[in-house]
Amino acid sequence: MSASGPDSPGQRNPELKTAAALIIGNELLNGKVQDTNTRFLASRLYDRGVKLMRVEIIPDDYDEIAEAVTRLSAKSDYVFTSGGIGPTLDDITYEAIARAFGLQLKLNEFTVSEMRRISPQHEINEARKRMALFPDPCELYSTDGLWVPIVCVNTNVFILPGVPWIFERMLQFNLHRFGSDETALKSSTVYTNRYEGELASELQRIADAFPLLDFGSYPRTQPDDKYNVMLTIEGADGELVRAAAAALSAAVQGAATPDALQARTGMVGDTDRTPPATD
């Protein structure tokens, strides 16, 4: 559950950039592979004051990719794609995005030369050259130690690989390109042993008193968690966030950490209930 004051996020923080993630791969939709890139992307963008507003997981399909990427590009400041840029027949992301924006593919000779330099043990065959066939025109953002670049198309579509460790390394290296430290959201967390049904009215009262902030309420997910509900407060004004957190903590008998809550109350959630977190 999440709640906020009457203003929209855009009205509260008009300078914040928005982002969408397009996660591509049949293996994600049939359960063979678990997506971890979305969580990494969301957390890193959050630190840069960028709000990830939408995540879509779609198959390796030309029409699906083209429809999704054009729609998301029109609505978001940044679109990040993950997956489908390898050397095999199911890797069609570059071509699908090129088609979506009416572009042709062109072999990028600099990327091929980087392949030779960084991975001299590998033959540069036709399959590997496919990984350097990019929509033209595009911008390339390199990462130290890797030959594969982030490929930027249509000024705001950023194409990344699906392999988590490569995705993470490339995004982290280029994170300065997205958002700003100055617009990073401030946040605070309050843990409580009360239940959502018991604290809902108090949460609403505090949210109404701080209309420029976003509030969230999340029941514990594991039986041995040291709390019943985690409450979050987010906003651009750090002092306002801290004031709201103090008011909310007092209202729900909360604490800033599960350990502090346990030390103060002598309780470890309500272990007699399964699931224990909500009403």
Descriptive terms for the model:
six-stranded mixed β-sheet, single chain, alpha/beta, Alpha-Beta Plaits, Molybdenum Cofactor Biosythetic Enzyme, Chain A, 279 residues, 2 domains, 11 helices, four-stranded antiparallel β-sheet
Structure description:
- The protein has helices at 9-12, 26-29, 37-47, 62-75, 93-100, 109-118, 126-129, 164-173, 196-209, 238-252, 258-265, and strands spanning 2-4, 17-24, 50-58, 78-82, 104-107, 133-136, 139-143, 146-153, 157-160, 186-192, 214-219, 229-235.
- With 279 residues, the chain is an alpha/beta fold.
- The protein folds into two domains: 17-181, Molybdenum Cofactor Biosythetic Enzyme, Chain A (3-Layer(aba) Sandwich); 186-265, Alpha-Beta Plaits, CATH 3.30.70.
- It has a six-stranded mixed sheet with strand order 3-2-4-9-8-7, with helices on both faces.
- Helix 3 (37-47) runs parallel beside helix 8 (164-173), helix 4 (62-75) crosses helix 5 (93-100) and helix 9 (196-209) packs antiparallel against helix 10 (238-252).
- It is elongated.
- The two termini are 13 Å apart.
- 33% of the residues are buried.
- The model is unreliable at 4-11 and 269-277 (pLDDT under 50).
Question: What is the topology?
Answer:
Elements: E1 2-4, H1 9-12, E2 17-24, H2 26-29, H3 37-47, E3 50-58, H4 62-75, E4 78-82, H5 93-100, E5 104-107, H6 109-118, H7 126-129, E6 133-136, E7 139-143, E8 146-153, E9 157-160, H8 164-173, E10 186-192, H9 196-209, E11 214-219, E12 229-235, H10 238-252, H11 258-265
Parallel strand pairs: 2-3, 2-4, 4-9
Antiparallel strand pairs: 1-11, 5-6, 7-8, 8-9, 10-12, 11-12
